[in-house]
Amino acid sequence: PVEVRAGRFEQNSEFRRLTLVRDITERKQAEETLRRSEAYMSAAEALSKSGSWAWSPAANEITHWSKGRYRLFGFDPAAGVPSLDAVLERIHPEDRALWLESKTRVTLGGETDFDFRIVLPDGETKHVHAVGRPILSQSGAVVEIIGAAVDVTEQKQAQEALRESEEQWKAVFENNPTMYFMLDSSHIILSVNPFGAEQLGYAREDLIGRHVGTVIHEDDREYALKKQTACLERLGRSASWETRKVRKDGSVIHARETGRAVLIKARPVVLIASEDITEAKRAAEALRETQAQVQRLVDANIIGIETWHFDGRVLAANDAYLKILGYSREDLVSGLLRWPDLTPPEWRDISFARFDEVKSTGIARPHQKEWLYLRYMLIHGRIG
Hints:
By secondary structure, this protein is an alpha+beta fold.
């Protein structure tokens, strides 16, 4: 491309035409390069949600305000470059002092790197990370300040969500009335919650770094460690087992444990939730002993014992009971025995009253009554 300029002039009473032709190829190339550079910059700012600006301290005015900066602060480009006062109005009231302090620091020749918030007219709040530095003259005076800012709202929201999640899990880990352990592949305790340490009579720092086998009953140690190793061999799959744990004072508690191995920072660890079931074990053992005592009493046939349903069926009875009423075990199995049929009419009201006691309280007061022996003869007995 060339640039052409023409004109006329008078010489010797004659008008002449002068044409100047200049090659502007380099200038056009430079303009195209600048245009493309500005287009790339605008696209980059849109993609990164960023914007740049420049400010002249001497003139106290903004000398440059990029398209990305308009988007970031919510200004209309058609309205022109905003004033500093207008910019300050968009900054969150709690962050204005920090923003002004940072501007002053750059004005004095320093650099700045900080976060602040922008509040748009519709109430939306953006979190922004900003940097700025001065442009100095040969004498060292600040002639201009340039800066850039990027929208970090999504990162801030993600960080806040992560922080809240971590706080929630920390609360669960530290305050849940269940013993939690984290072990490495060598069965070393990496972490234990306060409740777990307290249940075993230790401080947390006393357990962390110890082999978990030191708090497992020696008779259960091999079994429990095999279960933990099996978790490591099947990452992500849960396994459950029961074991006995030894407290610091030597006392023993029963525990039901559920473990799962996961990768944390590319390292396999075993997460174990351990529930103290000592009381449940004691209750189950007491129940078994009570049942054994009752069974011995039933089998001894010293007194008659029956088990019945509220609908009247006699479900079970020992030999002494059947002998008292004159029935055989075949009669019982066949379903012939029903307590209303075995009770004379005049005794049924008191019998029903005692059954109501059993329903409401689980026990009936001892009382005397009559039965029908083979449904024909009366016999006297005491229920209790």
